[in-house]
């Protein structure tokens, strides 16, 4: 009942502007009855209400409100107004409401991408030399909010995360039918006084965790006495076919001069995003 009252209150000011004292609806109300608001007008009212309230509150008021709150036209129009455009017109989503919320809540699916929580969230696959370490950035990152990075040592260091798409809210039907763009990115940098190497591999996996698509570029090598600037690598998976259920993100490296300590490649601000409206 609280939700119903909240929803009625949210739309009261808007609906009061629809009718005037001389209208048929007002006349009916004065006789103790009321007429339903036309669906197209109710839809326009819902456009001005926060989307979470439309789903959690408005659709519980009555059958008419539920019909509009669940309508394809409402969410397709919200997508249009908020510029969530599909990149491939041949892949129109079956569920525009789901498409809208996934666009609106696009996020990095990797946990602890900058090392602010040390190694939490990462599975260490190789921990060579003096092992992985988290340090402050040596040179400013293009994003001033990035203050930490992971550092490799004198033997191979590699870490990974496995993303379960269903647990992250991406249904099997959405992934199979719509196949949204999957954008990955990573930042890496060498030390100026030591050579190093950097590797990355990202796999789209099926329900048995077998690869469907893989991005594995060539190993990047840095010579000693370099400019130690930050470099970004990006890739967008498109048209990868049905069956993707997991994403495995793996990266790492080492120094190439076998120096004790942490002179190897530095990595930070890694990212995996599902982009229903297309990657940017």
Which helices and strands occur, and which strands form pairs?
Layout: H1 2-16, H2 24-30, H3 39-47, H4 51-56, H5 63-69, H6 72-81, H7 96-104, E1 123-127, E2 133-136, E3 148-151, E4 157-164, H8 172-177, E5 181-189, E6 196-205, E7 211-215, E8 220-222, E9 231-237, E10 246-255, E11 266-275
Antiparallel strand pairs: 1-4, 2-3, 3-11, 4-10, 5-9, 5-11, 6-7, 6-8, 6-10
Helix pairs in contact: 3-5, 6-7
GO molecular function: ubiquitin protein ligase activity
Pfam families: F-box-like (PF12937), FBA (PF04300)
Protein name: F-box only protein 6-like
Quick recap:
The chain is an alpha+beta fold and 280 residues long. Helix content is 25%, strand content 27%. It contains eight helices and eleven strands.
Structure, explained:
- With 280 residues, the protein is α+β, with helices and mostly antiparallel strands.
- It has 2 domains: 2-104, no CATH class; 123-275, Sandwich (Jelly Rolls).
- Helix content is 25%, strand content 27%.
- It contains 8 helices and 11 strands.
- Strands 1, 4, 6, 7, 8 and 10 form a 6-stranded antiparallel sheet that branches.
- Strand 6 and strand 7 form a beta hairpin.
- The model is unreliable at 10-33 (pLDDT under 50).
- It comes from Echeneis naucrates.
- Residues 99-276 form the FBA domain.
């Amino acid at each position: 009942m609280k939700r119903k009252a909240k929803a009625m209150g949210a739309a009261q000011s808007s609906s009061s502007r629809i009718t005037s004292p001389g209208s048929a609806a007002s006349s009916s109300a004065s006789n103790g009855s009321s007429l339903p608001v036309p669906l197209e007008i109710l839809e326009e009212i819902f456009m001005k209400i926060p989307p979470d309230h439309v789903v959690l509150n408005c659709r519980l008021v009555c059958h008419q409100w539920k019909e509009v709150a669940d309508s394809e036209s409402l969410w397709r129009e919200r997508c249009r107004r908020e510029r969530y455009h599909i990149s491939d017109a041949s892949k129109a989503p079956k569920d525009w409401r789901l498409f809208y919320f996934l666009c609106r809540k696009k996020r990095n699916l990797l946990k602890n991408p900058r090392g602010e929580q040390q190694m939490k969230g990462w599975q260490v696959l190789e921990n060579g030399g003096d092992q992985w370490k988290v340090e402050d950035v040596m040179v400013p990152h293009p994003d001033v909010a990035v203050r930490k990075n992971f550092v490799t040592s004198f033997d191979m260091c590699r870490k990974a995360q496995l993303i379960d798409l269903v647990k992250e809210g991406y249904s099997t039907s959405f992934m199979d039918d719509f196949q949204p763009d999957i954008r990955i990115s990573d930042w890496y940098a060498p030390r100026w006084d030591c050579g190093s190497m950097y590797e990355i591999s990202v796999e789209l996996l099926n329900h048995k965790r077998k690869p469907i698509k893989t991005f594995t570029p060539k190993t990047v090598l840095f010579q000693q006495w370099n400019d130690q600037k930050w470099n970004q690598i990006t890739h967008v998976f498109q048209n990868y076919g049905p069956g993707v259920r997991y994403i495995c993100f793996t990266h790492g490296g080492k120094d190439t001069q076998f120096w004790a300590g942490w002179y190897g490649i530095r990595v930070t601000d890694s990212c995996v995003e599902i982009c229903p409206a297309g990657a940017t």
